[in-house]
TrEMBL record:
SUPFAM superfamilies from the UniProt entry: ATPase domain of HSP90 chaperone/DNA topoisomerase II/histidine kinase, Periplasmic binding protein-like II, PYP-like sensor domain (PAS domain)
All residue ranges annotated as the Histidine kinase domain in the record: 602-796
Keyword list, A-Z: Coiled coil, Kinase, Membrane, Transferase, Transmembrane, Transmembrane helix, Two-component regulatory system
Protein name, per record: Histidine kinase
CDD domains: HATPase_UhpB-NarQ-NarX-like, PAS, PBP2_BvgS_HisK_like
Domain PAC: 398-448, 529-580
Organism whose genome encodes this protein: Pseudomonas parafulva
Residue runs in coiled coils: 571-598
GO MF, any single term: kinase activity
Domain of life of the native organism: Bacteria
Transmembrane segments: 275-296
NCBIfam families membership: sensory_box (TIGR00229)
Gene3D superfamilies, alphabetized: 1.20.5.1930, Histidine kinase-like ATPase, C-terminal domain (3.30.565.10), PAS domain (3.30.450.20), Periplasmic binding protein-like II (3.40.190.10)
Residue stretches making up the PAS domain: 449-526
Length: 800
């Protein structure tokens, strides 16, 4: 049991990968917001590799890297969408010097030691490489190092961490140092050493060579090499991102990586030459037996085919005749068209069930009856003319409509088709009867529908039309124009339908180009179209019209446009009056706002100058009293000190009131005013505020600078009250003759489309922008912050 237990432990230690529990698929790497933001700005990273097989090697012919660490980092870069720059070094010392020189950002396949902890930030282990005991294939499994005697030599690479570990923990071992792992295996093959100790990666590289095919893994020393991802110590967020990426890699992908690069390969039975010789001999015997069996089967099959071929052909021919006969009779019996076979004397020789049902007779009741019983107007003379015409192939008598007399006395409208037939030395005239009752009803319903449509279109307060292309010439024509045209434009439908008239000549000359563009585009793309503009009546009166047309394809494939022309003159007049009213209200609001700002500036100057001068004189008088009488009375000195402090507070209050009415910083330019307001916002809310303004900014007029500054104040007030943001960014740029100010925050955001009855800040900002002739764009989503962009046109003198 102890031996089985040790074998199970060895099998478990052979697992090279220590991966945290995670899903087999990689839906994506989940990062914290700070990590995602850092990664967005650091997509391009530099990877350092130590050239050591099988972890990393360089193919000089293809000029590319390959190996276990190369594939691992490539998968990690694909998951994190990184742009990597690869750099390789001959050993660990050169890699660490490159890190200290700032030439690389991270490196895979590192081992954490006290010395390396001062240079790298390490991730959790992503790969576990066991240290294995290798011996002859016929040696016992489960070798324990503590039970080896001094007569059994153990080859190990010296100097190295593995040799130091064995020397410190297994004093009984007879260690034999070698410069590399290959020589250690060669000593075991040559019998100069009993075992060799090396890591699984090097054994995987060497086990593929035929020289070491007789060696096998016989144990594990229990000291795995834990491979980690190391990153530069000044980027802790890079270490966190790499850790998240490693955790998101599927365990199956890491297992496949281990199988390709690190798992040792041993000779299989298929690699033995004797195995292939025996297999070829066995396949040859099986092939000979198969050929003999095939020849015998072919001989029996040919005899059976000859005996069955004649019978098969006879059965197929008989079955085809019977099937054709049944199919023909079934088609005739199930046909919805009545079929009559009539002899030269006009008597019926055959009638299918459809003809019997159509004429109201029972089964077999139509036989031997003359056609004159069903068609009273059919005389014998006319019948003979039909017979002769059908017999000679005259197309003039082939098809016509008539009324047949049913058995109940009713007349049935039918369409007759005649066809001459010779069958078994006899001549017949086949009469096909099709009931056209539904067709007549549909035609009557169509006429009634057209009459109803004309009545509706004639009462519509507008002009209804149909537009289509002339199939012959390809031009446009109006096959239908409603009677409402005369009330709308004074022209009759016939005048508008004239090729030289149409709707285009009704359009006002100033709007005709736009109308042609819209209509030509719709006709070219075969789509609906709509247009609004001015039209002229016969009397020269100008009216506003709304023309809409929808496309429809007829049964013959022809495309038509059904449309209507509405008179919207009253609506346009009301719309223009409303627009003029809104423009006047906006001009009034702009005037009131300008007067308000001027009044604020005047009050601010008077408060600052007049009240400031009085407070200065008052402070001087108190100071003079303090110099003259403070030493006479200590209580008076204390009172004077209190008065001076109150005067100083009043000074600050005067400055705050003047600044609130109109900040003096506006006189220094809008850029300085924005920077000043941002610093005041930071001091009041403790929210970092990043300001980006150009160095050389054109001077704005006082009204425009004040309006832009007030919009910024309102935006920052909204951030302070509602956004719950962590940072704010203000940007002022000059682009294409415009000055654009953008205020962005990373707060909770909101839905701009949702009505907020008590919110007038956005309305006020939008009105200020419209007063200055600018535009405002607001973008916000719940949980994604808010972005406000305001653009105003620079004045002509400013642009100059």
């Amino acid at each position: 049991m102890k031996r089985v237990h040790r074998l199970l432990m060895i099998g478990c230690l052979w697992l090279p990968l220590m991966v945290m529990a995670r899903p087999e698929t990689l839906p994506g790497v989940t990062l914290e917001p700070t990590q995602q933001q850092w990664l967005e700005t650091h997509r391009s990273l530099r990877v350092g590799l130590v050239l050591q097989a099988p972890y990393a090697q360089f193919d000089r012919r293809l000029q590319q890297l390959y190996g276990a660490n190369v594939e691992l980092v490539s998968s990690l870069a694909k998951a994190l969408h990184l742009d990597l720059t690869w750099r390789h070094y001959p050993d660990q010392a050169n890699l660490e010097r490159a890190l200290q020189a700032g030439e690389i950002d991270f490196a895979p396949g590192l081992t954490q030691t006290p010395a390396t902890l001062r240079l790298w930030l390490f991730s959790d282990p992503y790969m576990r490489v066991p240290q294995l005991i290798v011996g002859p294939r016929n040696a016992a499994l489960g070798v324990e190092l503590e039970k080896l005697d001094a007569a059994q030599r153990v080859a190990v690479r010296m100097p190295g961490v593995l040799a130091n570990y064995l020397r410190a923990n297994y004093g009984n071992l007879n260690l034999q140092g070698v410069p590399n792992d290959r020589e250690a295996l060669q000593l075991v093959v040559g019998g100069q050493a009993s075992y060799a100790v090396m890591d699984e990666a090097q054994l995987s590289r060497l086990s593929r060579e035929s020289e070491f095919s007789e060696l096998a893994v016989v144990g594990d020393i229990g000291l795995p090499q834990l491979l980690r991802m190391g990153s530069r110590p000044d980027w802790p967020l890079l270490a966190e991102v790499l850790e998240r990426g490693l955790q998101a890699l599927p365990a199956k992908e890491l297992e496949q990586l281990h199988q390709r690069w690190l798992q040792p390969r041993y000779p299989r039975i298929s690699e033995s030459p004797g195995f292939w010789q025996n297999l070829a001999l066995l396949l040859g015997l099986l092939l000979i037996c198969a050929l003999i069996t095939l020849v015998w089967q072919r001989r029996q099959q040919s005899q059976l085919e000859r005996s069955l071929l004649a019978t098969r052909e006879r059965l197929v021919e008989r079955h085809a005749r019977d099937e054709a006969s049944r199919l023909s009779q079934f088609a005739i019996d199930q046909s919805t068209v009545g079929i009559l076979w009539v002899n030269w004397d006009s008597h019926v020789r055959y009638a299918n069930p459809a003809a019997e049902r159509m004429l109201g007779y029972g089964e077999g009741a139509l036989l031997e009856k003359p056609l004159g019983d069903f068609e009273p107007s059919l005389s014998m003379e006319r019948w003979l003319d039909l017979w002769k015409g059908a017999r000679s192939g005259d197309s003039g008598v082939g098809q016509f409509e008539t009324r047949c007399l049913r058995a109940d006395g009713r007349l049935l409208p039918v369409e007759l088709s005649l066809s001459f037939l010779r069958f078994r030395d006899a001549e017949y005239l086949v009469v096909y009867l099709a009931d056209v009752t539904e067709r007549h009803r549909a035609t009557a319903a169509l006429r009634e529908s057209e009459a109803r449509l004309k009545g509706i279109a004639g009462n519509v307060p507008g002009l209804v039309f149909r537009l289509e292309r002339d199939p012959a010439e390809g031009g446009l024509e109006f096959p239908y124009v409603s009677e409402g045209s005369e009330a709308l434009v004074g022209y009759t439908p016939g005048e508008i339908q004239h090729p030289q008239m149409g709707l285009r000549n009704l359009v006002h000359p100033d709007d005709r180009a736009d109308y042609h563009r819209v209509q030509d585009l719709a006709l070219a793309n075969e789509q609906d179209w709509a247009w609004q503009g001015r039209i002229l009546t016969r009397q020269g009166e100008q009216r506003w019209a709304d023309i809409k047309a929808s496309t429809r394809r007829l049964g013959n494939g022809q495309l038509v446009w059904d449309g209507v022309v509405w008179d919207i003159t009253q609506g346009k007049r009301a719309e223009r009056a409303l627009a003029r009213s809104q423009e006047q209200l906006r001009e009034l609001s702009a005037h009131l706002e300008s007067v308000r700002e001027e009044e604020k500036a005047r009050i601010a100057r008077e408060v600052h100058d007049e009240l400031g001068q009085m407070l200065t004189v008052l402070k001087l008088e108190v100071s003079m009293c303090e110099l003259a009488f403070a030493e006479l009375d200590p209580g008076l000195n204390e009172r004077l000190t209190t008065m001076k402090r109150l005067i100083s507070q009043l000074f600050q209050l005067v400055r705050d009131v003047a600044t609130a009415l109109r900040p003096p910083i506006l006189d220094a330019g809008i850029a300085s005013a924005i920077e000043w307001q941002a610093r005041r916002f930071e001091a009041r809310t403790q929210i970092p505020c990043l300001v980006q303004v150009p160095d050389h900014l054109p001077a704005l007029s006082d009204a425009r600078a004040t309006g832009l500054f007030r919009i910024l104040q309102e935006a920052l007030t909204n951030v302070m009250r509602h956004a719950q943001a962590h940072s704010v960014e203000i940007e002022l740029v000059r682009e294409a003759g415009q000055l654009r100010m953008t205020v962005s925050d990373d707060g909770q955001g909101f839905c701009p489309d949702q009505p907020r009855p008590s919110s007038f800040g956005l309305v006020g900002m939008r009105e200020r922008v419209l007063m200055m002739g600018g535009s405002m764009v607001l973008h916000s989503e719940p949980g994604d912050g808010t972005r406000l962009s305001v653009a105003i046109a620079l004045e002509q003198e400013e642009r100059t």
